Amino acid sequence: MNTLNPDALLAQLNWRYATKKFDATKKIPAGTWAALEHALLLTPSSFGLQPWKFIVITDAAVRQKLVHVSWNQTQPTDCSHHTVFAVRKAIAEKDVDRFLDSIIATRGGAKESLKGYGDMMTGFAGKAAQEGWLREWAIRQVYIALGNFMTSAAVLGVDTCPMEGIEPANYDKILGLDGSEFETVVACAAGYRAADDKHAQLAKVRFPASEVIQHI
Ligand SMILES: Cc1cc2nc3c(=O)[nH]c(=O)nc-3n(C[C@H](O)[C@H](O)[C@H](O)COP(=O)(O)O)c2cc1C
């Protein structure tokens, strides 16, 4: 196993900050970006259902349009890769079935042996939809992907800015998600900080561990 030591991990987590100003001339190398996309795929989710889609936008014209619906924040145009984290709006029996097929395709075995697991997931999703919290549950999974992405990027020395300061409905229009199975939740710009981004020098503001972490 190839693990980071604790000091190296904390150095990268302290190095990470929500980048306000990216250096538009610096692009993430293909191999590094491929690893970050792979990190997205490896994100864990409840039941393993992966109720998400990640839309990576490198097209300059699309990114320019996104600035106008991102509270005029310029990270979408200045970063190297701008990623939209979208949630699957509904989880139907066919989605659970496709997941079961992928388990069998990956691990082998008989689909019948997964019937109980499938029924449980369909029952869960049905109940969540009926009680009105399926979307909220699915969005929670999407945020795990966001956290995983930002930490993975930091470990690789790539800067990020998570962005909730966006208009999700307008993102959906621009990205052609309207009428699809997905909708925008949050975005994340990735690339390299501009040398004059003053935010990089600011001390981290966090409540003390004694308040936030309780040992019992
Ligand atoms: C879900 C989420 C959404 C955020 N949205 C924005 C945003 O739209 N624009 C921005 O500049 N920073 C945004 N931030 C950055 C936070 O303000 C920042 O993470 C927080 O102040 C802590 O600072 P640090 O990340 O630099 O340590 C967001 C952070 C998170 C986690």
Strand tally: 4
Number of domains: 1
Bound molecules: flavin mononucleotide
Cα-based radius of gyration, to the nearest Å: 19 Å
Percent strand: 5-15%
- The assigned CATH architecture is 3-Layer(aba) Sandwich
Notable features of this structure?
47% helix; NADH Oxidase; 9 helices; binds flavin mononucleotide; 4 strands; alpha+beta; 216 residues; 4-stranded antiparallel beta sheet
Short overview:
With 216 residues, this protein is α+β, with helices and mostly antiparallel strands.
What does this structure look like?
With 216 residues, this protein is an alpha+beta fold. It has one domain (30-193): NADH Oxidase, CATH 3.40.109.10. The chain is 47% helix and 13% strand. The protein is built from nine helices and four strands. It has helices at residues 6-15, 30-41, 60-68, 75-78, 93-107, 115-131, 134-155, 168-175, 209-212; strands at 52-57, 81-88, 159-163, 182-191. Strands 1-2-4-3 form a four-stranded antiparallel beta sheet, with helices on both faces. The chain is globular, with a radius of gyration of 19 Å. The model has no long low-confidence stretch (mean pLDDT 97). Residues 17-18, 20, 73, 161-165, 186, 204 line the site of flavin mononucleotide. Flavin mononucleotide (FMN) binds at residues 17-18, 20, 73, 161-165, 186, 204.
